[in-house]
Design brief:
The chain is of the alpha/beta class. The chain has 20 helices and 25 strands. It binds 5-amino-5-deoxy-1-O-phosphono-D-mannitol.
Length: 623
């Protein structure tokens, strides 16, 4: 039951190696979605069989296999990169899966929940299964429908009607050499429109090198692409009109651009991500422009609670925003992991504004939480990076983070853009609800506008952070402390280190230290501490300085991230990294950056695969 990357291609003219080239290139860019196995099926002039190659492990294994045993030329192809949940990452479980004696190939992202019943039914008809996946069921069902005389697209509609769960499926049939069909439910599928060729992908990065004109497939729709046409229908076969849109970034945004890893490149794109997210957001009256949809100002003026739902790093952006929005708007803000929210029977209603934060817009936990909130009548504003993703489509209104494609599994620039977007929302609410005077709103926006240059300064002076990471390459544990908005930054620092370097890293609220975590401190344990500005609330700075002294007295190696000019920091720290002066609430945009740089460097010296850490995938599209 994979949650995976999917790509499809069909082109005009004689069979050539273009289908293979396009699909392998697309898989390379989609590999961030999963890298347990990869496979490709090519539609060749032989109408009885497809040419298929698939291999467990990263895409490089498939590329090697193809180099050793070249695939024939063709007219169309589909390819898949897998993140395994059920069924181990073996060659047999790799997609594509074949049916009709090798004439039909199918690839899948998602979970077919009723697959066991369907498999039993098919076994009853004598079908033999060769993998442990749920996908194979869809392949055999499709073969049944095609054998009963239906063209591939009609057969796909019939199959989709029988499936329960979440899926994107693509299929080809050797007897229809210029057709690829796809369908989706609760899982993404985007169509790329070319000249005499068309594309399908889980994400536009799959085909951005070839076309920037795309259209999204809606829920429970089927698409048939041929070289000349794209036909979209619902599951009953009625035509559906879908308007194409132009992707605003180009292929270079999805390449490493001279950096060794995507993550490094994306860390360096932080200033641009913040600047782009801020650009042109306010209308002539200084009111925030949402990108899509609307939550009526009358509704926003009367909400009495905000709940942020998100996972992982996106949830830390929400936690940072809580401090700011409560301070600016005097509305209680709860931040909850999406997966916890839905199952605790939360108190949500029409006067609760739910803010869903997600880079991918495809995180299933957040999708399900959002739907739950909507069922309770709550308006949902989504802060999302990927245009046209499920969360963006289903939310009542969308504020896009304009971070550009984030390919590395570890989220970096998206975090900065998410904080920025959530702050814009908070400033808008403060204005709308009259919590701030226009000059105060203008001052906040000016403070935000100054941040990209400051983030750049942090990056420009980050070499000592890298040096320290190299020095600590053998450490088995790192603790992180922060208070107020520094607390989510500490959580972020720990998550990044776990995720990339696979070492024990924990983030704590500094005030919690003496309630337990201080017992972890012993001689030489590195502790990274986010020190609040001494220009902020005096007591906050003093309390964290005391924490630094407490852990230092117990032998910890204290690594402090402090504001430029904070002389006290150096007195108690083994190492200090300074970030530029900024208002307290803006600080996370700066202090998160050394966390990212540190984790990247430490994982690199340990020889880890920084862009594709083990067991993870970029978009977590299963619950
Ligand atoms: O796409 P999303 O922002 O919804 O993803 C949420 C988390 O899965 C994600 O932030 C994850 O924690 C990152 N790998 C952390 O670097």
């Amino acid at each position: 039951m994979p949650m995976c990357g999917i790509v499809g291609y069909v082109g005009a003219g004689s069979p050539s190696d273009r289908p293979q080239g396009v699909v392998m290139g697309g898989l390379e860019r989609l590999e961030y979605r999963g890298y347990d196995s990869a496979g490709i099926a090519i539609v060749t002039p032989d109408e009885t069989r497809l040419a298929v190659a698939k291999k467990a492990g990263k895409l490089v294994n498939l590329a090697k296999e193809i180099a050793e045993r070249p695939l024939p030329v063709g007219t169309a192809a589909i390819g898949h990169t897998r993140w395994a949940t059920h069924g181990s990452p073996t060659d047999a479980n790799a997609h594509p899966h074949l049916a009709a004696g090798g004439r039909i190939a199918i690839i899948h992202n998602g979970i077919i929940e009723n697959y066991a019943a369907l498999r039993d039914e098919l076994r009853g008809k004598g079908v033999e299964f060769v993998s442990e996946t749920d996908t194979e069921v869809a392949g055999h069902l499709l073969a049944d429908e095609v054998d009963s005389g239906k063209p591939l697209a009609e057969a796909m509609r019939a199959v989709a009607r029988r499936l329960e769960g979440a899926f994107t499926l693509l299929a080809v049939d050797a007897r229809e050499p210029h057709v690829v069909v796809g369908t989706r439910r609760n899982s993404p599928l985007v169509v790329g429109l070319g000249e005499n060729e068309n594309f399908l992908g889980s994400d536009v990065v799959a085909f951005i090198e070839h076309t920037r004109t795309a259209l999204e497939l809606g829920q429970d729709e089927v698409v048939e692409i041929t070289p000349e046409a794209v036909v979209v229908t619902d599951l009953d076969g009625s035509p559906v009109e879908r308007a194409p849109y132009e992707v605003t970034w180009d292929a270079s945004a999805a390449q490493k651009g001279g950096f060794d890893t995507f993550m490094e490149k994306e860390i360096h794109e932080g200033p641009t991500a913040v600047a782009d997210t801020l650009r042109g957001r306010m209308d002539a009256n200084g009111r925030l422009q949402l990108d899509e949809g609307i939550v009526a100002p009358e509704v926003l003026a009367t909400i009495d609670k905000i709940i942020v739902i998100a996972c992982g790093t996106a949830s830390y952006a929400g936690l940072v925003a809580k401090y700011a929005i409560e301070h600016w708007c005097r509305i209680p803000v709860e931040v909850e992991y999406s997966h916890e929210f839905r199952y605790r029977d939360p108190v949500v209603g029409p006067r609760t504004l739910v803010v869903a934060i997600s880079q991918s817009g495809e995180t299933m936990d957040t999708i399900m939480a959002m739907r739950h909130a909507q069922q309770q009548g709550a308006p949902v504003v989504a802060i999302v990076n990927v245009q046209g993703s499920t969360i963006a489509r289903e939310a009542d209104a969308v504020l896009y983070t304009r971070a550009g494609p984030e390919i590395a599994v570890a989220s970096t620039k998206a975090l900065l853009a998410q904080i920025t977007a959530a702050y814009l929302l908070g400033i808008y609410l403060a204005d709308l609800r009259g919590n701030k005077f226009p000059d105060e709103i203008a001052a906040l926006l000016r403070e935000l506008d100054a941040m990209p240059a400051k983030v750049q300064l942090v990056l420009d002076t980050s070499e000592p952070v890298r040096e320290l990471a190299r020095e600590l390459a053998d450490t088995k544990i790192v603790l992180f402390l922060g208070r107020h908005v520094g607390y989510p930054v500490a959580l972020e620092g720990a998550l990044k280190l776990k995720e990339l370097a696979y070492i024990h890293a924990e983030g704590f609220a500094a005030g919690e230290l003496k309630h337990g975590p201080i017992a972890l401190v012993e001689e030489g344990v590195p502790i990274i501490i986010v020190l609040p500005s001494p220009r902020g609330r005096e007591s906050l700075h003093a309390k964290v300085v005391s924490n630094i002294q407490e852990v230092r007295a117990r032998g910890a190696r204290t690594i402090v991230i402090a504001e430029e000019g904070d002389e006290q920091a150096a007195q108690y720290a083994s190492h200090v990294f300074y970030v530029p002066e900024a208002p307290t609430l803006m600080m996370p945009l700066l202090t998160a950056v050394p966390m990212h740089v540190f984790a990247h460097e430490l994982a690199t010296v340990q020889g880890r695969d920084v862009d594709q850490p083990r067991n993870l995938a970029k978009s977590v599209t299963v619950e």
